[in-house]
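Journal club side-thread
Mid-discussion, someone asked how the predicted structure for our own chain would compare to the paper's figures. Pasting it here so we can look after the session.
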Amino acid sequence: MAHDLDMVYTSTMLRASTCSSLAALLLLGCEDPPLPTPAGAFFLQFRDTGSSCSLLTHETGVGVIGNSGTPEMIADGAADTTVTCSVLSVGGGFDVNAKIDEKPFLQVKVSGISSSNDSEANAIEGQLSYASVDTGGELYSANNCLFWFNSEDQGAVGGQAWMTFKCAGVESEGKVCEIFQGFVSVENCDGAVTEEE
């Protein structure tokens, strides 16, 4: 009788163990896959405008990017780079908020950019901040920079954007310089549309 009880106990434990293992596998199968890592690139031409600007004209950037082609993006966490971004669908356009920090540093914020912003003449205003070793670490900012899509390769979708920009004046403690032209691209940002959506 004791032997039969041992068999019943062992069988019950085995069933419980099997059920627990199956439940664990099912839970693992239901977990969302890890989100892609945000990545970005930018390039800009910073220009000395004269007596109001005490800095030299220079070019700088992170990754490799231009007006068209395929940008070489730097992922968040790679090479001491921090990339945070969101590209959110709002109405007929997109709100873009991107920060790329690899010393140089660039942050842009644009509300409502759309396919109608297809040239400098049709550009939309947005915010920009920039700092690098060439600025002595000083942050140069403007709230009225121009952003637009300058080629067929550029554009915005949920979680991803590639824009051209320029700033007639970026200011730091009374010093005013110019960003003659620049490009910024980010991907795998907040706002990306998943297959389930």
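Post-session note: Confidence is low (pLDDT under 50) at residues 5-19, 21-28.
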